Amino acid sequence: IDQVMLHKMSGDRMLGPYVVAVQLTEQFGALPVALISSLFPVLAQAAGQEPLFRHYLGVSYRFLMATVFFACAVVTPITAPLVSLLYGKQFLSSASLINILVWSEAPLFLGVALTNALVAKNLQRYLPYSTAVGAVLNIGLNLVFIPRWGALGASWATLISYCVAAVLFYLVFGPARGVTLQGLRIAGPPLALSLAIAAALRYMPLHFLLKFFIGALLYLAGAWMTGTIRRSELERLRELFRGALLMFRPEPP
């Protein structure tokens, strides 16, 4: 929707850099679905046991939030050289758009875990409303933002509509509120950590590869100290993924 509206309202000159930014950030799009697929059977089995269900849901949230905010922390400070390396200097204007769109992946990651939790709890009746709200909000924000700020406005419209539709909208419904708040609480520490790292490294006069490695080390250390990454849960996730791979292994002849 946003690309069509941007093309109609601002033309090809604005659309090109936006398409590049979307293509780069959407590389993460399939990742949360792949990561959560191994945990969904566990969530479904534990749906009738609230403490156990909340435990496994917390594992899902922490793992996805640790992953997406790692990407935000290391990508945001190096967007300009990254775009120049991958697409050429003619697309450098995409860097400021990526700085916004990469953060829009966070509500999507959180939303994937939340959606699976709602399905496991037999609360999937709320999902179509979320889709409709997201579409209407995105169109409305684009109508306001694109004439004023062009592709930058479309990027902000995407971020805001994702936050509302994928996560915040479910706070309206009592049965979905608990699992939504749990996800928001878990997302808080890695969000603050990644914002601090991205802000600290963005204007440092360092080579972008050095920024990448410093950002990665700082984030991993901070995530470990804040409990976003837990050794016991990493071991459990490894077992789940190994089990999922065995399920899809072809039978011997």
Descriptive account of the structure:
By secondary structure, the protein is mainly alpha-helical. The chain has one domain (2-243). It contains eleven helices and no strands. The model is unreliable at 244-253 (pLDDT under 50).
Please describe the structure with a list of short key phrases separated by commas or semicolons.
single chain, 253 residues, mainly alpha, globular
Can you lay out the helices and strands and say which pair or pack?
Layout (H helix, E strand, L loop, with lengths): L1 H9 L1 H14 L5 H7 L2 H6 L4 H26 L3 H9 L6 H27 L6 H40 L7 H29 L5 H18 L5 H17 L6
Helix pairs in contact: 1-2, 1-8, 2-7, 2-8, 3-7, 5-7, 5-9, 5-10, 6-7, 7-8, 7-9, 9-10
What percentage of residues falls in helices of 4 or more residues? over 70%
Instruction: Measure the end-to-end span.
Output: 48 Å
- Proportion of beta-strand residues: under 5%
* Overall residue-averaged pLDDT value: 87
Number of helices: 11
Total strand count, please? Answer: 0
Radius of gyration: 19 Å
Can you tell me the residue ranges where pLDDT is under 50 for at least 5 consecutive residues? 244-253
Shape: globular
Biggest pleated-sheet summary:
none
Structural class: mainly alpha
SSE ordering: HHHHHHHHHHH
**How many individual domains?**
1
